[in-house]
UniProtKB/TrEMBL annotation:
Listed GO CC annotations: membrane
Subcellular location: Membrane
Keyword flag Membrane: yes
Protein name, entry field: Suppressor of tumorigenicity 7 protein-like
Underlying gene: St7l
Bilayer disposition of the protein: Multi-pass membrane protein
Record field: transmembrane: 15-36, 445-464
Keyword Transmembrane: yes
Main location: membrane
Pfam families assigned to the protein according to its UniProt record, in alphabetical order: ST7
Length: 477
């Protein structure tokens, strides 16, 4: 002790200043390295080393997260290369403008659709329902202009003009069903008239489609009209409670036009089968469309998770599971939820009613908030119907989210999460809706600790430089 006292009495203020500057510099380097490691790998390096190496030496047990679902492992690499970053898709279950979107606006006074969303729909209608041979038929010429009109009343007026020129103009009935009909019953009546006219025109186009490229283009257009009308008729039947009829219409449509899988008619079928509680049929549809080569959607991923959760949710208890561990079926359910959350992390808050829903837009961005709104709007009732399913989701989704690779540029089961989804979602969703953004991970403890240590030692160095004598007395004391 006397030696230490003599040693401290001989130290000068310069030594204390150099000591605090050096410690501040070293702690700053540790902080920078910790931050870099977290940004790249999503974990704290110090915490990882202590858990992986020090805890076993001290007699602790390493708790490793469950392995990812084996059925999705092969999706990663091909999807990363082939999937576009921000492709906007037509919402497979989009509502009717006149019978549903307009009714919402009458009641609330709020516009449920954005201009950007309606503009995309206008482009879709021009691509689906027009072709180069429209100039040969006066009614189709009128409808070609009608799809470009911005004013809804102008479009409806043009559709009536087209029907005056040709009572069998299928696209005019389609426009009236979508925008003039104020109830689903009226919409279905218009679509039945469109179906009668569309089938007649389609058969006529089939007979002469090989005569010229113009006739082929006309056949494509007439095919699009016929598929669109049959799909909307099936959706009308679903909304009016004739669910078995709707399922049959969807199945027949998928068999008749198997090459049009990009229209995602199977998502309409999944929702209708869930309403019937035909879970074996739902599993059969998933087995066909939940394939590595096909693009995923929230409907596919979360429906697969719902079926897995259904097997264990009724008897699931977090306390019991923590004591005895997870069974094989529970692990499968948790892995399915992990897979779904990684694909679209916005859905759980809507299913758990932590965020309020709005009417889904006519277009969605896969993995974005718009897709989450569209999925939860139609599927929340199916999750509520299965006892304990939402409880299992509530107990597991936050924990599984922590296992998702970080930052956004990384992906584990799927291609990396697109960074542009927030901007696109803000254009698709109404302004009064609070857009959900990609959940950010909390900073680890050691980043806060090293930042505090660096700041504290830097402050000591500054005080030692400004008040050397006082800081020497303080250090000796």
């Amino acid at each position: 002790l006397p030696t230490v006292t003599v040693f401290l009495s001989t130290l000068t203020p310069k030594f204390y200043f150099a000591l605090t500057v050096t410690s501040s510099f070293i702690s700053g380097l540790i902080f920078v390295f910790e931050w870099w490691h977290f940004r790249k790998y999503g974990t704290s390096f110090i915490e990882q080393v202590s858990v992986s190496h020090l805890r076993p030496l001290m007699g602790g047990v390493e708790s490793s997260p469950p392995a990812p679902a084996a059925f999705s492992a092969g999706e990663n690499e091909p999807s990363r290369q082939n999937m576009p970053e921000c492709k906007v898709w037509r919402n497979p279950l989009n509502l009717f403008r006149g019978a549903e979107y307009s009714r919402y606006m009458w009641v609330t006074g709020k516009e449920p659709l954005t201009y950007y969303d309606m503009n995309l729909s206008a482009q879709d209608h021009q691509n689906f329902f027009t072709c180069d041979t429209d100039a040969l038929r006066p009614s189709d010429t009128v409808m070609q202009k009608a799809w470009r009109e911005r004013n809804p009343q102008a479009r409806i007026k043009a559709a009536h003009q087209a029907l005056e020129l040709n009572n069998d103009c299928a696209t005019a009935y389609v426009l009236l069903a979508e925008e003039e009909a104020t109830t689903i019953v009226d919409a279905e009546r218009y679509f039945k008239q469109a179906l009668k006219a569309g089938e007649m025109i389609y058969r006529r186009s089939q007979n002469c489609h090989s005569q010229s490229p113009q006739h082929e283009a006309q056949l494509r257009r007439d095919t699009n009209v016929l598929v669109y009308v049959k799909r909307r008729l099936a959706m009308c039947a679903r909304k009016l409670g004739r669910i078995r009829e709707a399922v049959k219409m969807m199945r027949d449509l998928m068999k008749e036009f198997p090459l049009l899988s990009m229209l995602n008619i199977h998502e309409n079928l999944l929702e209708a089968l869930l309403e019937l509680q035909a879970y074996a049929d739902v599993q059969a549809v998933l087995a066909k469309y939940d394939d590595i080569s096909l693009p995923k959607s929230a409907a596919i991923c979360y429906t697969a998770a719902l079926l897995k959760a259904r097997a264990v949710s009724e008897r699931f208890s977090p306390e019991t599971a923590s004591k005895r561990g997870l069974s094989t079926a529970e692990i499968n359910a948790v892995e399915a939820i992990h897979r779904a959350v990684e694909f679209n992390p916005h859905v759980p808050k809507y299913l758990l009613e932590m965020k309020s829903l709005v009417l889904p837009p006519e277009h969605i961005l896969k993995r974005g908030d718009s897709e989450a709104v569209a999925y939860a709007f139609f599927h929340l009732q199916h999750w509520k119907r299965i006892e304990g399913a939402l409880n299992l989701l509530h107990c597991t989704w936050e924990g599984t989210f922590r296992m998702i690779p970080y930052p956004l540029e990384k992906g584990h089961l799927f291609y990396p999460y697109p960074s542009c989804t927030e901007t696109a979602d803000r254009e698709l969703l109404p302004t009064f809706h609070e857009v959900s953004v990609y959940p950010q991970k909390e900073l680890p403890f050691f980043i806060h600790f090293t930042a505090g240590l660096c700041s504290f030692s830097a402050m000591l160095a500054l005080l030692t430089h400004q008040f050397p004598e006082l800081m020497v007395v303080f250090a000796r004391a």
